[in-house]
Amino acid sequence: MAKHVKNFIYKDKNLFSMLARTNVATKEQVETFMGIRRAESHIKDGLIEKAILVIKDSGEEARTIEVYRLTEEGKGVVRERCNISSMYASNSVRHDLALTHSYIELFNRDSSLVDRWVTENDYKVMLQERVLELREAGRDREADQMEADIERKRYSAPDGGYRDAEGRIHSIEITTRYYKEETIVAKANTIQALGITSCNEIYIN
Protein backbone atom coordinates (compact mmCIF):
# COMPACT_ATOMS: atom_id res chain seq x y z
CA MET A 1 0.00 0.00 0.00
CA ALA A 2 1.35 3.43 -0.95
CA LYS A 3 2.28 5.70 1.90
CA HIS A 4 0.27 8.89 2.29
CA VAL A 5 3.36 10.69 3.66
CA LYS A 6 6.19 9.93 1.28
CA ASN A 7 8.98 11.97 2.91
CA PHE A 8 9.68 12.09 6.65
CA ILE A 9 10.83 15.69 7.15
CA TYR A 10 11.71 17.98 10.06
CA LYS A 11 8.07 18.70 11.01
CA ASP A 12 7.36 14.96 11.20
CA LYS A 13 10.47 14.37 13.31
CA ASN A 14 9.47 17.18 15.67
CA LEU A 15 5.96 15.84 16.23
CA PHE A 16 6.97 12.19 16.52
CA SER A 17 9.77 13.07 18.95
CA MET A 18 7.36 15.01 21.16
CA LEU A 19 4.79 12.20 21.23
CA ALA A 20 7.54 9.73 22.15
CA ARG A 21 8.54 11.97 25.05
CA THR A 22 5.13 13.10 26.35
CA ASN A 23 2.71 10.41 25.06
CA VAL A 24 -0.30 12.47 23.92
CA ALA A 25 -1.24 15.78 22.30
CA THR A 26 -4.43 17.62 21.50
CA LYS A 27 -5.26 18.78 17.98
CA GLU A 28 -4.11 22.29 18.85
CA GLN A 29 -0.80 20.96 20.20
CA VAL A 30 -0.25 18.85 17.08
CA GLU A 31 -0.75 21.96 14.96
CA THR A 32 2.31 23.50 16.62
CA PHE A 33 4.34 21.23 14.36
CA MET A 34 2.24 20.53 11.28
CA GLY A 35 -1.09 21.03 9.59
CA ILE A 36 -3.79 18.64 10.73
CA ARG A 37 -4.14 17.20 7.21
CA ARG A 38 -0.56 15.94 7.36
CA ALA A 39 -1.20 14.46 10.80
CA GLU A 40 -4.29 12.73 9.41
CA SER A 41 -2.08 11.25 6.67
CA HIS A 42 0.14 9.73 9.37
CA ILE A 43 -3.03 8.22 10.84
CA LYS A 44 -3.86 6.66 7.47
CA ASP A 45 -0.33 5.25 7.37
CA GLY A 46 -0.89 3.65 10.79
CA LEU A 47 1.80 5.64 12.59
CA ILE A 48 -0.42 7.88 14.71
CA GLU A 49 -3.84 7.19 16.18
CA LYS A 50 -6.60 9.29 17.69
CA ALA A 51 -8.12 8.24 20.99
CA ILE A 52 -10.99 9.50 23.12
CA LEU A 53 -9.86 9.63 26.74
CA VAL A 54 -11.63 10.63 29.94
CA ILE A 55 -10.27 13.65 31.78
CA LYS A 56 -11.43 15.03 35.11
CA ASP A 57 -10.45 18.42 36.45
CA SER A 58 -10.57 19.02 40.17
CA GLY A 59 -14.11 19.83 41.30
CA GLU A 60 -15.57 19.28 37.84
CA GLU A 61 -17.43 16.44 36.16
CA ALA A 62 -15.50 14.01 34.00
CA ARG A 63 -15.31 14.86 30.31
CA THR A 64 -13.81 13.32 27.23
CA ILE A 65 -10.99 14.68 25.12
CA GLU A 66 -9.60 13.61 21.76
CA VAL A 67 -5.84 13.13 21.68
CA TYR A 68 -3.22 12.01 19.20
CA ARG A 69 -0.60 9.41 20.11
CA LEU A 70 1.87 7.08 18.44
CA THR A 71 0.94 3.56 17.44
CA GLU A 72 3.41 0.72 17.96
CA GLU A 73 4.47 1.13 14.33
CA GLY A 74 4.89 4.85 14.94
CA LYS A 75 7.15 4.13 17.90
CA GLY A 76 9.23 1.97 15.61
CA VAL A 77 9.63 4.94 13.25
CA VAL A 78 10.75 7.07 16.20
CA ARG A 79 13.46 4.56 17.07
CA GLU A 80 14.65 4.41 13.46
CA ARG A 81 14.30 8.05 12.38
CA CYS A 82 14.45 10.17 15.54
CA ASN A 83 17.27 8.46 17.45
CA ILE A 84 15.01 7.92 20.49
CA SER A 85 15.18 4.46 22.01
CA SER A 86 12.86 4.66 25.03
CA MET A 87 9.27 5.88 25.05
CA TYR A 88 7.72 7.95 27.83
CA ALA A 89 5.68 5.84 30.25
CA SER A 90 2.17 7.27 30.33
CA ASN A 91 0.80 8.78 33.51
CA SER A 92 -2.71 10.30 33.60
CA VAL A 93 -3.99 12.16 30.54
CA ARG A 94 -4.02 15.50 32.40
CA HIS A 95 -0.47 14.90 33.58
CA ASP A 96 0.73 13.95 30.08
CA LEU A 97 -0.97 16.94 28.43
CA ALA A 98 0.66 19.26 30.97
CA LEU A 99 4.05 17.77 30.08
CA THR A 100 3.24 18.23 26.38
CA HIS A 101 2.41 21.89 27.08
CA SER A 102 5.78 22.36 28.81
CA TYR A 103 7.58 20.65 25.93
CA ILE A 104 5.95 22.96 23.37
CA GLU A 105 6.78 26.05 25.45
CA LEU A 106 10.41 24.92 25.48
CA PHE A 107 10.34 24.21 21.73
CA ASN A 108 8.91 27.67 21.01
CA ARG A 109 11.51 29.34 23.20
CA ASP A 110 14.49 27.52 21.65
CA SER A 111 13.92 24.44 19.50
CA SER A 112 17.51 23.26 20.06
CA LEU A 113 16.70 22.61 23.72
CA VAL A 114 14.31 19.76 22.92
CA ASP A 115 17.11 18.17 20.88
CA ARG A 116 18.80 17.76 24.27
CA TRP A 117 15.66 16.47 26.02
CA VAL A 118 16.26 14.27 29.08
CA THR A 119 13.77 11.45 29.65
CA GLU A 120 12.73 9.62 32.80
CA ASN A 121 14.82 6.69 31.65
CA ASP A 122 17.85 8.95 31.14
CA TYR A 123 17.61 10.05 34.77
CA LYS A 124 17.48 6.42 35.91
CA VAL A 125 20.60 5.66 33.90
CA MET A 126 22.32 8.71 35.43
CA LEU A 127 21.53 7.46 38.93
CA GLN A 128 23.18 4.13 38.15
CA GLU A 129 26.16 5.96 36.67
CA ARG A 130 26.42 7.98 39.88
CA VAL A 131 26.66 4.72 41.86
CA LEU A 132 29.53 3.61 39.58
CA GLU A 133 31.28 6.96 40.01
CA LEU A 134 31.16 6.55 43.79
CA ARG A 135 32.63 3.05 43.52
CA GLU A 136 35.40 4.21 41.20
CA ALA A 137 36.22 6.94 43.71
CA GLY A 138 36.57 4.30 46.44
CA ARG A 139 33.41 5.46 48.22
CA ASP A 140 31.89 2.00 48.44
CA ARG A 141 29.82 2.68 51.54
CA GLU A 142 28.06 5.62 49.86
CA ALA A 143 27.62 3.59 46.68
CA ASP A 144 26.06 0.70 48.63
CA GLN A 145 23.70 3.10 50.39
CA MET A 146 22.64 4.80 47.17
CA GLU A 147 22.12 1.45 45.45
CA ALA A 148 19.93 0.29 48.35
CA ASP A 149 17.97 3.55 48.31
CA ILE A 150 17.34 3.22 44.58
CA GLU A 151 16.02 -0.29 45.18
CA ARG A 152 13.76 1.04 47.95
CA LYS A 153 12.47 3.76 45.57
CA ARG A 154 13.97 6.57 47.61
CA TYR A 155 14.95 8.15 44.31
CA SER A 156 12.38 9.09 41.68
CA ALA A 157 13.09 10.36 38.16
CA PRO A 158 11.60 13.68 37.00
CA ASP A 159 9.10 13.58 34.14
CA GLY A 160 11.48 15.22 31.70
CA GLY A 161 13.92 18.06 31.22
CA TYR A 162 16.74 19.24 29.03
CA ARG A 163 20.44 20.11 28.94
CA ASP A 164 21.35 23.71 28.24
CA ALA A 165 24.21 24.78 25.99
CA GLU A 166 26.68 24.35 28.89
CA GLY A 167 25.44 20.82 29.59
CA ARG A 168 23.60 21.69 32.80
CA ILE A 169 20.40 19.75 33.45
CA HIS A 170 17.07 21.49 34.03
CA SER A 171 14.28 19.13 35.05
CA ILE A 172 10.52 19.35 34.54
CA GLU A 173 8.12 17.83 37.04
CA ILE A 174 4.33 17.70 36.82
CA THR A 175 2.89 17.43 40.33
CA THR A 176 -0.63 16.87 41.62
CA ARG A 177 -2.40 17.06 44.97
CA TYR A 178 -2.16 13.27 45.11
CA TYR A 179 1.64 13.32 45.41
CA LYS A 180 2.72 11.65 48.65
CA GLU A 181 5.44 13.10 50.87
CA GLU A 182 7.78 10.19 50.11
CA THR A 183 7.45 10.85 46.38
CA ILE A 184 8.35 14.51 46.84
CA VAL A 185 11.38 13.53 48.93
CA ALA A 186 12.44 10.94 46.34
CA LYS A 187 12.29 13.58 43.58
CA ALA A 188 14.38 15.95 45.71
CA ASN A 189 16.93 13.18 46.34
CA THR A 190 17.36 12.69 42.59
CA ILE A 191 17.79 16.42 41.96
CA GLN A 192 20.48 16.58 44.63
CA ALA A 193 22.28 13.38 43.60
CA LEU A 194 22.50 14.39 39.94
CA GLY A 195 23.33 18.04 40.57
CA ILE A 196 20.32 19.23 38.59
CA THR A 197 20.57 23.00 38.11
CA SER A 198 16.87 23.83 38.29
CA CYS A 199 13.50 22.13 38.49
CA ASN A 200 10.44 23.60 36.82
CA GLU A 201 7.59 22.23 38.92
CA ILE A 202 4.13 22.49 37.34
CA TYR A 203 1.19 21.84 39.65
CA ILE A 204 -2.13 20.53 38.35
CA ASN A 205 -5.17 19.87 40.55
Largest sheet: 3 strands, mixed
Order of helices and strands: HHHEEHHHHHEEHE
Total beta strands: 5
Helix % is 40-55%
Ends apart, CA distance between termini: 45 Å
What key attributes describe this structure?
5 strands; two-stranded antiparallel sheet; 9 helices; three-stranded mixed sheet; 48% helix; alpha+beta; 205 residues
Describe this entry's structure for a reader.
By secondary structure, the protein is of the alpha+beta class. 48% of the residues lie in helices and 17% in strands. It has nine helices and five strands. The strands form two sheets. A three-stranded mixed beta sheet has the order 3-4-5, with helices on one face. Strand 3 (160-163) and strand 4 form a beta hairpin. Helix 1 crosses helix 4 (72-81), helix 1 crosses helix 5 (93-109) and helix 7 (120-136) runs antiparallel to helix 8. It is globular, with a radius of gyration of 19 Å.
